[in-house]
Amino acid sequence: MHHVLARYGFDKDNYTVEKFGSGLINETCVVKNGKEKYILQKVNEKVFVEPLLIADNLEKIENHLSQTNADYYFTNPQYALDGKSMVHVDGGYYRIFPFVKNSKTLDVVQTAGQAYEAARQFGKFTKVLSAIDISSLNITLPSFHDLSLRYHQFQKALEEGNQERLKEVSGLVDQLKKHSDIVEEFVKIRHSDAFKLRVTHHDTKISNVLFDEHDKGICVIDLDTVMPGYFISDVGDMMRTYLCPVSEEEKDFDQIEIRDEFYIAIVDGYKAYMEDELTAEERQYFFYAGKFMIYMQALRFLTDYINNDIYYGSRYPGHNLVRATNQATLLKRLIEKEHQLSTYA
């Protein structure tokens, strides 16, 4: 890492570098330089094929916040000696962030209070950037949350995928086909003036929020997926990953359930900053947001299984089928509670 850190003015005799965190996309390390600590990341170019688009987005956001919300805690990257926020060294793209003192991340949502704080921080992030020119932001992951595309890919897999696996999953295929109305609703959203494109994080798992020692939210992090989007992406991803006490990796589907108090916490937390920003029609789509994201992930896992695990890979035989069934079960559990939860907004 010496060639990278030298670009930021680090003296190789004064720092140490260790791997850090549980992220699965970018390579992350903590750099200790005397009493100071920094986060060093190498951007995964297999996922983000144009890393400089990320850097450009973050610089635009930083400039906007400095003029409109200078007190907002924005984890902007450090600038290298040449004035760039991302450097290209030995064929890779790197950036450095200051380490936020007295902060922690969580891998699992354990309490409704944590869910509330996370939702509040993601809502605040979108709120403080409500006046930015949304058209100025780059698309860092094209069609990332395009449910119409994901359903098309699913249909294509049914036509061209592994025939043996297709026979094996016929019941699950039929189950997901029955919920194609979720896709139809998404198409309506994209054509509705009532739904606004805003600065959206797109990856709102709990580990992308920094907390203090009292479990109060400090700010959101990992901003590579920040780009124009609909509020259902951020709210939906929180519901997909916070509502159930077990993750998408759980094989015992009897453990999959919807925790009502976590649903309420997500809605209340997000609305703490976004209630006046959302249109009347958008406020009716909190429950749909959960269906939207869970359904899309079920489709993606099953599509990959039918296509011989070419996208997500597989740590054991049937891994993506387990995850697809897990998410289909989660969708079923959520829909079972539609009558009692959908009116809470």
What's the structural blueprint in terms of helices and strands?
Blueprint: H1 2-6, E1 15-19, E2 27-33, E3 36-42, H2 51-68, E4 87-89, E5 92-98, H3 112-128, H4 147-160, H5 163-168, H6 170-177, H7 181-190, E6 198-200, E7 209-211, E8 217-220, E9 227-229, H8 231-242, H9 260-274, H10 286-306, H11 319-336, H12 338-341
Antiparallel strand pairs: 1-2, 2-3, 3-5, 4-5, 6-9, 7-8
Question: How is this structure best described in words?
Answer:
The chain has about 350 residues and is an alpha+beta fold. The protein has helices at about 1-5, 50-70, 110-130, 145-160, 165-170, 170-175, 180-190, 230-240, 260-275, 285-305, 320-335, 340, and strands at about 15-20, 25-35, 35-40, 85-90, 90-100, 200, 210, 215-220, 225-230. Helix 8 (about 230-240) packs antiparallel against helix 9 and helix 8 packs across helix 10 (about 285-305). The chain starts with a helix and ends with a helix. The model has no long low-confidence stretch (mean pLDDT about 95).
